[in-house]
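Pilot study result, target chain (115 residues):
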Amino acid sequence: QVQLVESGGDLVQPGGSLRLSCRASRSIFSISVMGWYRQAPGKQREWVATITAGGGTNYADSVKGRFTISRDNAMNTVYLQMNNLKPEDTAVYYCSANLGNLRHWGQGTQVTVSS
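Predicted structure:
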């Protein structure tokens, strides 16, 4: 079991930047995959980015080149650096952790991109 707590969401203007954090309740050293997903109003939750225990990363095409996922095993934290934000990035962002056959979720943090 693991509890995940996201933070860092905010209101930001188009072109701005934010860094989201996901703090885990236990060591993430052995967690094979951690990731970020998002859900906009009226839409299904969609995958944004993942990072493996070995540091391998993957990104959705919509965020590639603008977002960067990273992990700090010493701090039990995964980050999502978001640059050049667009209005269509507005959503609740959720952190995930794959443990065995289960995917654990945080409670989400709101990101709003608007002028």
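One observation from the pilot: The longest strand covers residues 91-99. A full batch analysis is planned for the follow-on phase.
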